[in-house]
Amino acid sequence: MGRAEPRTGRVSRAIPDKRAPALAVLVAAVALAVGLAACGSGGGGEGGTVKLEGEPSGNVTISNWPLYIDPGKEGTVAEFEKATGIKVKYIEDVNDNAEFFGKMQPLLEQGESGGRSMFVVTDWMAKKMHDLGYLQNVDKEGIPNVEENLVPSLQHPGFDPNRQFSVPWQSGMGGIIVRTDLAPEVRSICHLFDPKYKGKVDFLSELRETVPLVMTCIGINPEEATEEDWMKAIEKVKGAVESGQIRRFTGNDYARDLTSGDAVAVIGWSGDAVQLQADNPNIEFRMPTLGCSLWSDNMVIPVGAPNPTAAEAWMNYVYVPKNQAKIAEYVNYVTPVEGVKRIFEKTEPELAESDLIFPSSEFTKGCFTQAQLTEEEEGPVTRAWNAVLNG
Fold first, then answer.
1. Span 229-242, mean pLDDT?
2. Which of 9, 55, 270, 354 makes an SS bond possible with 173, Cβ 3.0 to 4.6 Å?
3. CA 386, 388, 389: angle at the middle one, nearest 5?
């Protein structure tokens, strides 16, 4: 998943709200994502459990995806510092899960975190890191607000059934972001392969995001895909690379290509489009006609993390509904915190009706949980994908 350019004005979509079944549809699907065995079942050992040390204080360093939080002097970071006295170093250096893992693995393998107290990664990457012994379990006594306010459907995901090592930051959808003035017809992943848009489309470098979406274009259900199906979809992408159809592969940095018009459509993430509309109202997220992907990004505490007590204080703070509401208002992703909608109903009625924050069952019909790979499939599929990315 990823972020976009800063949102300088409020833009919302007043879509009729069906929140009760809607949020359940999305978060229940996300909660079932990965469908893997219980935590710590397949890797290099356990990372232990966070040891809390008195009252939170000192400094905390957090790595997150770019522009995934409300900024400024009245933003969440500043308010957290004021409320707790903890000094925050907030780094926006997660652009792609695999890229971040490649940077961090040599450190984590040595029991080091590069000075980071916490970072945010997607479900499957959190599972992978934990199985390798790179993450610590949280001490739930330090995060009572998470225990109280985490939406029920995200409390027991397949990759971390008891939320031992992960706390959801935001959830969202992978689909298409379009320049409606330049490519008004694009509503399907298949349209991105139309020669009319040759050299004008960006695909995400994220294997588990792009390839399953392409599967829908060739009639494959990502939730039932075999290794052969993954290879078929990768082969289709490879052909689009060789023909010059795809301009480039990106992380969340596709934002600049859309704003400049160098790309007319991209595979991208739901909340980004709303932020980009502040600079260009012709940018729009479109749910692909053949279905979107559903995912969550999670706060995790790595081995070797300095001041994990302060990291848990941060988790606890952002799970206060009024604090979470500030984040949700800015990023327009699906909030994992109960009570935010009630706040918006009083303060921002148009946001309370947004299908990007509180998605309706109609809006997410046909969507699938972010597809996963078995241990046997991951090696050959990843090698094939990397060959396309680096070809």
1. 98
2. 270
3. 65
